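Problem statement: downstream parser choked on a complex file, so we are re-checking the raw output for the heme C run. The parser issue turned out to be on our end (a line-ending mismatch), but while we're here, posting the original submission so the record is complete.
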Amino acid sequence: MTGKTPDPRQPGQTPKRPAAADHHPGDHRATGAVPTSAVPTDNIPADPVPADAGPDDRIGRARHRPEPAAQLKARDIATTGHSWDGIQEYDNPLPRWWLWTFYACILYAILYSIAYPAWPMIDRATRGVLGYSTRDEVRADIAAVEAANAGIKERLVDTDLEQVRGDPELLRFAGSAGASVFRTWCAQCHGAGAAGGPGYPNHLDDDWLWGGDLGAIYASTAHGIRNTTDPDARWSEMPAFGDILDRDQIGALVQHVRAISGQDHDAALAATGAGIYADNCVACHGDAGTGNRDLGAPDLTDAIWLYGGDEAALTETITQSRFGVMPAFNTRLSEADLRAVTVYVHGLGGGE
Ligand code: HEC
Ligand code: HEC
């Protein structure tokens, strides 16, 4: 230092920064004061903005200029002791309004956790002195909806299924209630859109294994198919022809089935197959192969396949046979829900 006051207006005479190593945050926490030795005050210009600086320059500089330590000291405001490149942090108290809001929040949280279910315990949360429960609320909502629907459900149960179609109000109710029953109980197997999949029939087409009028759909749904729990379940069993016929005969049958369903086939083999079909298959699938609803035997002449119409699928079906099982729903659904889902499935497009 020469003792000469540096000319603040001279460019390049910016305040010298203290070496970063001298100023680790927290260094001066104990005293709270900023040691003057660490902050060079002697060469801080009184006004480091040159007189000829433009307005932008002035604003920009003023904003980022740290308050000189000497002034800080004079105002006697403690800093946190942190200093980064000469920038220090005031240790001002929190605003009152903020503090009281904070305390109010804590108080609210305590009162809330006493009044309402809050703290998780081993099997459930604390109940809260008000006894409020979201589950009770849901139960009450469900009970209210059920009470509101009780009348129309009763009417659905008392009305002949065929007559439901002539009653617009009942039909609308059954359609929407049936749709939600279907999504809950049937979609897993028949698909959310009821289009089915291999082994699970499509309810959108007008091809039915057991029948597509309201009575048949109701019976399939109420008692199920090939289950052992309901004595009235629909039942039939296609034999596994792998035990009865040899491979060549089954190969010929496959070509015959492809022929009657209008697919590419070997004509000579198909002719052989026709004879084997007549001996083994007509009892269930009919002379022409159009099926038999009393036995749930599919129509083999349409292009709709439950298990598949390609050679591999046909060979497997004939060799091993299939055994589609559907559970009974009369033990799971109320009579009103059974009827509603019947009306819904019937209304999907293929109802007869
Ligand atoms: C566990 C799977 C499964 C569930 C769940 C299921 N089904 Fe089925 N359903 C089947 C199978 C498999 C068949 C075909 C049985 C066969 O091969 O004859 C079938 C057949 C049917 C049929 C006869 C179709 C026809 O062409 O004659 C109707 C109607 C039916 N289901 C309705 C329903 C309804 C309504 C529900 C819901 C309440 C339901 N299913 C739930 C598996 C299921
Ligand atoms: C006792 C009755 C019965 C006899 C006999 C029978 N079937 Fe079947 N067949 C059925 C039934 C029932 C099904 C449906 C099985 C199911 O849904 O799980 C079926 C299904 C099929 C299918 C599947 C159709 C599809 O849509 O995927 C083919 C193919 C078939 N049978 C061919 C034959 C041939 C060929 C013969 C003679 C060698 C024959 N069946 C004999 C009852 C019979």
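For whoever reads this later: The longest strand covers residues 79-84.
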